[in-house]
Amino acid sequence: MDDSVIVSPDWLAAHLDDPTVHVVDVRDAWEYDGIGHLPGAVNIPFDSYRNDSDVDRGTLPGAEAFADLLGDAGISEDDTIVAYDDTHGVFAARFVLTAIEYGHDDVRLLDGDFSAWNREYETTSETPDVEPTDYEPEPLEPEASPLVGYDAVEAALERDALFVDTREQDEFEEARLPGAVRFDWREVVDEESRRLKPEAALEDLLSARGITPDREIVLYCNTARRISHTYVVLNALGYEDIHFYEGSLTEWREHDGAVESGPADA
């Protein structure tokens, strides 16, 4: 896999002493403080970068608010960020997507989560001393952003775009975008190791649903959390034409967009 997007625990362990590598723990503060965290990790809880302040970007926090979070954590624009959680990476992937959208060039997802790391490496309860920075965000221009809105999704339905629903079976059967295929985001995770399945296995899983690198892909769920993980994984596998429907099914139904329901080949 592309180490610019997803890195292994071994890679991170070898780079913990690098002052340009900053580890971000997105769990709740009580978990970070009470359970422990990776050495040197700072805490930026999920709720702090998940709101509706940025009216043009769904539930992203806004460029300045996100910049304040990174600056308070001692992170600069040129630093490498590695994010993790303890939920197979789904919340950390949302952090990765947010950082990408606001122009951070080198942000990565830890393969696995806190529990996976803890099986092989030490954790700590010590909070690192950080020196705040004056972080300057550079939000992506619309044409460079993976995020798409209702109008773009409506247009994609008229093309040969593949709509990928990352939710559970019952959600998919209740309502889905027309023609969508279901790919539960958790299918890429090995439950025993808590890390991603081997690359060949991932490619087989995806191709079995018609999710191949030559297709234009539009990802959605309910509120754009779960698709963050799938987006990062596809990115790591070399997929390039990936669109991220930030409003997801919630926005689609608010606009009375057409949906399908009932059992389907999922």
TrEMBL record:
The keyword Transferase applies. SMART domains: RHOD (SM00450). Residues 121-140 are annotated as: Disordered. PROSITE patterns: RHODANESE_3 (PS50206). Residues 128-140 have a biased composition (Acidic residues). The keyword Transferase applies. Residues 17-126, 157-261 form the Rhodanese domain. One of its GO terms (molecular function) is transferase activity. This is Thiosulfate/3-mercaptopyruvate sulfurtransferase. InterPro entries: Rhodanese-like_dom, Rhodanese-like_dom_sf, Thiosulfate_sulfurtransferase. CDD domains: TST_Repeat_1 (cd01448). Pfam families: Rhodanese. Keywords: Pyruvate, Repeat, Transferase.
